[in-house]
Structure formats: structure tokens, C-alpha cells
């Protein structure tokens, strides 16, 4: 390996100046090394070479950067995602929401907002920041190659990167129910400034991140109480639900999509991940195909 060579350039008579003495570059005794490089000099040499290889890749002279592959081999593998809800716990969460009271107008508004919130977080796999900073005018409809109208949600994600997420029929049904409960038209208008989630009472201002976290956490806590009431065997399941947070819904969405054999490229694009691996930048999938597969295989099934 080149770094090992820099630590001890061999054969020395070819690469190292005799006795470390300096001579002119044109001299017959000139060699590129005066001796082994220090750790800091080795790092600097690798940085320079990496920049050169990256430029050659960008310029089209090379297909890939060998030094980037070397760095990847030295990285620890990413830990497996464990902060998600298994199918049975996810069903319990949905049952908890279905049990919510809706006798009064305030209770109905709270119920439909909760259904909409969980649908949004699960079906779109959104981060909390992507929910509270977005507006209903970010929904748009366009025809696919087969002439079918499909809804999408434009999301400003991590690193100020825009992506579009399939707004499935289930999601749009929940949105229209929520909007009707608020006395609004079922579907938003382009550039409508209404926040995706509103406080109870009709005030048109966005909820804070902490408010959304608390609303989700309250549902998980009620779910844990229901599970405990089913018997002592539910203690461990209840404890797991108590540990869950709003971000678990994003992991749950990704895990469920992968388990149902949604193309991993579509999962990547739906969640706004940078890549699956370093080679995933070479993979591209049709937006329409991604919408169809998300529609078919990723459902909330209230």
C-alpha cells in the first residue's frame, strides 16, 4: 500500500538520498526521499493525491477514485437500524389513534389532526423539521407517462436540499379529511401558505418542533398503557413503545418499505438519503415508477 511505502521507501538505494544529503535535482544521486515520511507528511500526501484523483474523476479521465474506496474499507460499518416499530407495535399505535374520542368539535379536530400527522410522518418518512417548516401549498399534482394524475409533496430537507415525495392516495384522503374538519377545501391550492399542521382552534400558524414531538409521544404513551392492560407479557412491548419518538416513525417507514420489497433506490429517494452506498450515485429510478411502487406497497391501512 502506498502509505506503507511512504513510511519506509524501499528499495532505499532507488528512492532515498544517500546519508540524507541534499543534492540538485539534476544530480545523478538525487532521490525523491530524504528518509521515511512523518505521519503528518503521509496524511498531507494522501490529501493531495485524493484531490488529484477526484479531479480526474470529475474531468472524466477516471471512472472512480481508488483512495475513496480505500477510506471506505477503513470505516466502521453503519449500525443496523433498531429504533423502529415492528408491525405488531405499529398496529397497536394505530388502534390507539382509532380509540381517540371525537364527540365534540375540539375532539374531532384533535383526532383528525393526529391521523393526518401520523400519516404524514409514516407515509412520507419525513423528519420533524420537514413537517413544521413546510406548507400545504407544497403539494402539487402532475400527470405521469400513462396520463394518470399523481400528487407529490415538495420537501426542503437536510442540508437545504429539495426533493419530491410521493403523496399517495391514502395520504391525500387523510389530508382532505383534515382540511374538511377545518372548514377548508379538500385539496390545497398552489403556493397556499397554510402550515401542514395547525394548532387546535383554527389559528393558521405552524406548530413548533417540540409540540409535534409531544403530540407523537402522547400517542406512544397511551399505546403503552393499552399494551400493559393486555397482560404481563406486554411489559417489554410497552417499554419499547415508551422509548419511541417521532423520529422512530421515519425509521419505521424506511424499515417497512424495505421489508415489503420496495426498490431500495425508491426508499433512498423517498427519505432523502444521500446514497445507499458510494456507487448508488450511478443508480437512477423514474419518479413515476417510484410513485407507483410506493402507492402499491407502502400503506398505512387505517
Automatic annotation (TrEMBL):
It is found in: Cytoplasm. Pfam families: Phage_integrase. Residues 285-302 have a biased composition (Basic and acidic residues). Keywords: DNA integration, DNA recombination. Residues 275-302 are annotated as: Disordered. Residues 80-296 form the Tyr recombinase domain. This is Tyrosine-type recombinase/integrase. It comes from Keguizhuia sedimenti.
Amino acid at each position: 500500500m502506498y502509505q506503507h511505502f511512504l513510511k519506509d521507501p524501499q528499495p532505499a538505494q532507488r528512492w532515498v538520498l544517500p546519508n540524507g544529503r541534499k543534492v540538485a535535482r539534476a544530480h545523478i544521486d538525487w532521490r525523491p526521499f530524504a528518509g521515511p515520511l512523518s505521519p503528518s507528511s503521509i496524511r498531507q500526501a494522501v490529501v493531495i493525491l485524493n484531490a488529484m484523483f477526484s479531479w480526474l474523476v470529475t474531468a472524466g479521465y477516471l471512472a472512480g477514485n481508488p483512495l475513496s474506496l480505500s477510506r471506505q474499507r477503513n470505516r466502521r460499518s453503519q449500525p443496523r437500524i433498531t429504533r423502529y416499530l415492528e408491525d405488531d407495535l405499529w398496529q397497536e399505535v394505530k388502534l390507539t389513534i382509532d380509540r381517540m374520542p371525537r364527540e365534540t368539535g375540539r375532539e374531532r379536530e384533535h383526532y383528525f389532526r393526529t391521523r393526518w400527522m401520523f400519516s404524514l410522518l409514516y407515509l412520507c418518512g419525513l423528519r420533524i423539521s420537514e413537517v413544521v417548516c413546510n406548507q400545504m401549498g407544497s403539494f402539487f399534482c402532475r400527470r405521469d407517462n400513462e396520463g394518470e394524475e399523481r400528487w407529490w409533496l415538495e420537501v426542503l430537507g437536510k442540508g437545504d436540499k429539495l426533493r419530491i415525495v410521493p403523496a399517495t392516495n391514502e395520504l391525500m384522503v387523510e389530508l382532505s379529511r383534515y382540511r374538511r374538519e377545518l372548514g377548508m377545501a379538500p385539496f390545497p391550492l398552489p403556493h397556499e401558505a397554510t402550515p401542514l399542521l395547525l394548532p387546535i382552534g383554527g389559528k393558521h400558524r405552524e406548530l413548533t418542533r417540540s409540540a409535534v414531538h409531544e403530540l407523537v409521544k402522547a400517542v406512544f404513551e397511551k399505546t403503552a398503557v393499552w399494551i400493559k392492560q393486555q397482560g404481563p407479557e406486554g411489559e417489554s412491548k410497552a417499554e419499547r413503545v415508551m422509548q419511541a419518538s417521532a423520529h422512530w416513525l421515519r425509521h419505521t417507514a424506511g424499515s417497512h418499505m424495505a421489508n415489503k420489497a420496495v426498490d431500495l433506490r425508491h426508499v433512498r429517494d423517498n427519505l432523502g438519503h444521500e446514497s445507499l452506498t458510494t456507487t448508488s450515485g450511478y443508480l437512477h429510478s423514474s419518479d413515476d415508477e417510484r410513485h407507483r411502487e410506493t402507492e402499491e406497497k407502502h400503506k398505512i391501512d387505517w
